[in-house]
């Protein structure tokens, strides 16, 4: 007898922001591998987004590319419209797009601050708000999921761990932490699950320069002894969006090889 696999996402539609590279790309691919059709959002690299779409289609999945700058209200609304036009009502939204603009505090410009907050935090608000509106308009589809909708934010260990010289980034991720939990509290009774994943150090474009600078000794900060792959996070995003995680509401899953265990305190501290 065939049994229902709660980790599958067949018949569901998903949107992933910032999905033309890194963790967003891996999340889109993992969602598609689990059976969802996926809208691959990109800001400025259509070729990269098309490559993600092609990879998903080659594996037998369905995907479309949708352009938008997530920090712009009109663009976010148009992105959801385009995604639903092509894939149907969305069941899953992953707010992943993010940037860094690092500087010592005295040298951090207001533009550096505003750019990071606009994409990482205001973008998460705009995407999260539109996701909730769309889930409500769609209504329940018990044939594909117990939840009315699933919203996953890509946060960071830096929603918890302070990060000198990156106060804009850490503040944006700290903001996502309580945006996520407050929103989860607001909409859980409607059957909407809001959660987050908090990656540690994952090898992507966002930290390519830092990783090239071996003096950072990043591995020493990771008890598990390796930098993460985007797929480590993509798999968690797909699982969090599935009914296998149906009773997880308002939580952050730290996926960091133990980085948030503060390994510097091991031994004599
Ligand atoms: P990445 O640079 O490969 O991905 C970021 C994506 O966001 C890119 O595709 C970029 O085009 C997109 N983007 C940037 N601004 C945008 C905008 N205004 N509108 C739409 N898209 C936009 O890096 P990544 O590591 O995959 O980052 C993805 C997320 O993971 C970010 O939110 C980042 O903060 C978070 N994160 C990454 C790490 C890590 O170690 N790589 C750790 C913790 C959290």
TrEMBL record:
This is SDR family oxidoreductase. Keywords: Oxidoreductase. Pfam families: adh_short_C2. SMART domains: PKS_KR. InterPro entries: KR_dom, NAD(P)-bd_dom_sf, Sc_DH/Rdtase_CS, SDR_fam. GO terms for molecular function: oxidoreductase activity. Belongs to the short-chain dehydrogenases/reductases (SDR) family. The lineage of its organism: Bacteria, Pseudomonadati, Pseudomonadota, Alphaproteobacteria, Hyphomicrobiales. Residues 12-166 form the Ketoreductase domain. Transmembrane segments: none annotated.
């Amino acid at each position: 007898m065939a049994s229902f696999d709660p980790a599958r996402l067949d018949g569901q539609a998903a949107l992933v922001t910032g999905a033309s590279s890194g963790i967003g790309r891996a999340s889109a691919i993992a969602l598609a591998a689990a059976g969802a059709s996926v809208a691959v959002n990109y800001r400025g690299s259509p070729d990269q987004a098309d490559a993600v779409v092609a990879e998903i289609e080659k594996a037998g999945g369905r995907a479309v590319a949708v352009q938008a700058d997530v920090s712009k209200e009109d663009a976010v609304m148009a992105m959801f419209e385009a995604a639903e036009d092509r894939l149907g009502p969305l069941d899953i939204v992953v707010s992943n797009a993010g940037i860094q603009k690092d500087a010592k505090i005295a040298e951090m410009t207001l533009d550096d601050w505003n750019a990071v907050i606009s994409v990482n935090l205001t973008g998460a608000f705009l995407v999260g708000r539109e996701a909730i509106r769309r889930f409500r308009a769609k209504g329940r589809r018990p044939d594909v999921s117990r939840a009315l909708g699933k919203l996953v934010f890509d946060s960071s260990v830096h929603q918890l761990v302070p990060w000198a010289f990156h106060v804009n980034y850490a503040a944006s991720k700290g903001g996502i932490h309580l945006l996520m939990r407050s929103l989860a509290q607001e909409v859980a009774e409607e059957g909407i699950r809001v959660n987050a994943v908090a990656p540690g150090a994952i090898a992507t474009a966002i930290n390519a320069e830092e990783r090239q600078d071996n003096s950072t000794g990043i591995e020493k900060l990771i008890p598990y002894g390796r930098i993460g792959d985007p797929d480590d996070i993509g798999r968690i995003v797909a699982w969090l969006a599935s009914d296998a995680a149906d009773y997880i509401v308002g939580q952050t899953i730290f996926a960091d090889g133990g980085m948030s265990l503060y390994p510097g305190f091991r031994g004599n501290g």
